[in-house]
Design a protein that fits this description.
Helices cover 59% and strands 8% of the residues. The protein has 159 residues and is mainly alpha-helical.
């Protein structure tokens, strides 16, 4: 029997792929959120931490660019994470208006738990798929991301 969630409502009949992407993102994010709660993190905070694991000492602007979240979300997340003792923000030496973000020992200690979370989420996500299906899906997903980013602001004409 087909999962009722895989049947789009009538108004989404001409947007089946978009509806499937929405359902996938919602399910994936929901499961990730549950896993993150076990680490006392909110969704999106792990993305900021992963960027800092790769290169500690980034400015808030650099983090904003790399994670693709809006300014208010990043600012709020960084403030929460600073309050939780995971990072510190301090003015840059070259410009006191620029805030530089550094991990604390508590923040650095989340590297392995976050890596484990992503490994587990990956195993759950791909169970039952072949290596070829995983590769094809990944390639297709990034092609959709590029398409939405490149042309998403343009409404296609009915040709």
């Amino acid at each position: 029997m087909t999962d009722p969630a895989s049947r789009p409502p009538g108004t989404a009949r001409d947007g089946r792929l978009s509806y499937a992407v929405f359902q996938l993102a919602r399910a994936h994010r929901g499961h990730a959120a549950t896993m993150l709660r076990n680490m006392n993190l909110h969704p999106g905070q792990e993305l900021l931490l992963m960027q800092l694991f790769d290169r500690d000492g980034q400015t808030q602007s650099e983090l904003l660019e790399t994670v693709g979240l809006d300014h208010s979300t990043v600012s709020k997340s960084l403030r929460r994470m600073q309050d939780a003792g995971l990072l510190v923000r301090e003015p840059a030496a070259h410009d006191r208006r620029v805030m530089v973000v550094h991990l604390t020992d508590a923040g650095r200690a989340l590297r392995e738990p976050i890596a484990d979370m992503w490994r587990t989420l990956e195993k759950i996500s791909v169970q039952g798929l072949t290596a070829e299906q995983i590769e094809a899906f990944t390639t297709t997903a990034y092609a959709i991301v590029r398409s939405v980013k490149d042309r998403g602001h343009q409404v296609p004409s009915d040709e």
